[in-house]
Task: structure prediction
Amino acid sequence: MILVINPNSTQDVTDHIDRSLGAYRLGGGPDIVCDTLRSGPPGIESQAHVDGTTERLIQYFDADEARRSSEAVVLACFSDPGVHALREILPCPVLGSAECAYFTAAALGERFGVISILARVVARHKRQVRLLGLEHKLAADLPIERSVVALSDDAATLSRMLEVGRSLVGDHGANVVVMGCAGMARYRDRLEDALRVPVVDPTQAAVAMAIGLMQQRGGS
Result:
């Protein structure tokens, strides 16, 4: 089983993540179970949220042996909260969706752009890109200035994502776009159709990597 955990408490985000993973549920493939961290904040939008969520995630796994027995864990949040702590305590691969999205985008094109939720998260994103050694691949990281909860407003959110996405492609030279929040899952297909460049959904990127790792183990 691949356990996909949404570290914020907004069930609507989890529901759309779950729907976006339908194509990854293949016959004979691993079960993909999506869950919500009920004790998390409504959205992870600051470093304080990231830091505070780490302990809650540890408690979440400590409370249920079945969760600890997952074959892979995907953190469905672009801040990758608790990824290093969970790698210390869990026996299975723990995949951060942002980390997987960045590496996927780097493989798809020369330069990628990121659509962020808020201006205050951009510095944190750039720090992770730098630590991953991908700074030379980043065209730009631009915010839509909408909270995680506000992403459920379909018309307003898609309009801003298209505006920012076009700027990333047209003004900054990105030939791949990364959606910088797991809560944007519902918009990937429409965004890709409009921008005419690959659009990377972070949770899909992490789940795809998790499936690959499990298939590799099964075939070894």
Observations:
- Residues 98-201 form a domain with the Rossmann fold fold (CATH 3.40.50.12500).
- The mean pLDDT is 95.
- The beta strands are 2-6, 32-36, 72-75, 94-96, 112-116, 138-143, 176-179, 199-200.
